[in-house]
Specification:
Blueprint lengths: L10 H16 L8 H6 L11 H9 L4 E5 L3 H13 L2 H15 L1 E9 L4 E8 L12 E6 L8 E11 L6 E8 L3 E7 L4 E9 L12 E5 L11 H21 L3 E5 L36 E5 L5 H18 L15 H40 L11 E4 L7 H13 L4 H7 L4 H22 L36
Length: 482
Amino acid sequence: MPDKLPVDINDTVRQDQIVIARNYNDGNHNVKLTERLKQFLNQDFPFRLNMCRTVVSAVAERLRVIGFDSVNTNLIDWATNLWDINSMAAIQEEIYEAALRDGEGFMIVDWDNELLRPRWVFNERYTSKAAGGNDTGCWMVYEQNDHRQKPLYAVKQWSEIEEGGDEYQIRRTYYYPDRVEKYVNTGNEWKTFEATIPWMGPDKLPLGIAAIPFNNKGLRCEAWDAFPLQDALNKTLVDLLSSSDITAFRIFYALGFIPTTDGKTPAADGSNLLKIEPGTVVGTSKSARDAEFGAIEPANIAPLMDEAHQIVLWCAMVTATPVSRFISTRLVASESTLKEQEGPLISRVTARQESFKGSWSKCLTLSAKLQTLYGEGAVDIVTKVTPTWADAASRGEAEKMDVLQQKKALGVPTKQLWIEMGYDNKTIEKMEQMQQEARDEQQRIFGSGDGTDDNSGDGTDDTTADGGAATSGESVTGEETE
């Protein structure tokens, strides 16, 4: 193995971009506070109004796989079971957020020798410590250093304590289409960690790279256009707080005399200085020509508030995020206005659904190959299985039910409608059992009927997932669950 990888010539720049995106997403912004503001703002919680996370989460929260589709119904059940035992329903939003935030992420598909099933482990994109990252994660090497070209291999790097010792060592695993190679670095030299692992099927054809990329459009960080506006908003809020702190109250002034409680010269300790309170009378024996008492009215901070509001509107515009995700007002927008605002967001979500659909399909295809190669019973590796997404548009409950009723009238099976309503497999299985019991009871009472329901069945096997969470264990490639 060479001392270092054939790294993308732009990889250093790419890592810098990812670290910047993570900092903005996490609220680690470069905000300069005045000494006065530092006195009353808790420095344990950095001051900012984070718009960047909202830009990412607005898309991620609408990306939700709710089932699978295939002409092979047994393959649907197998995919659903695999999805459940890898706990993807619980963590899929985290996967989308990481991929959207960084522009890419990777799902490593492996075979668990203990649980005897495919195992999925998501990894964030690699960033080095030199770039401000954590020196952990995955990256892909492509032909001509172009992510639109054929992927050559993937790399995973992480640090761990050496077995039987107390020193950290750096590990790297190379995922090629036909093999897996492992290396370790305990100092300045890379050494083979264990023998090369073949990664081929019984036909001696490569299984494919085990790290499946989840790429955002152009490997672009989703909230990139919001970063300059985020800085502008934070600066405006600092100005707003500073202005309101200095000029929020009337400032009284006295010319020609200093008000005291006893009319005498102010004491050295200031004990006789007059405190201005409700009902206080301020007077002096000097003439109006020689003395004056007045007040400086507080400044109008409305322009600063309008400026902050406008920056938020600009952020919504350049990121195609509905304004309602940033600003709540007493004015109630009409349904048509809200739908119009959501149009660009729905387009973003739909585009990401199409992109990540391919990634999930690749995970399933490789998993089917591993199941056939190492598991009990072959899985159809020819027929395609794809994820089914929840509706990208936000709808009211009445509108959702109306759409479901229309689908039912068109002959969509009840089970599919239940899936779209968000019911899990165990609940659906229970409801199907209740339906069957009701049909059996009806047949017993009336002694007729064929016990079928045109809208209840979809021809699928009712086998459901066991719901068990993935646990750690040895795998074919020897990776440990993180």
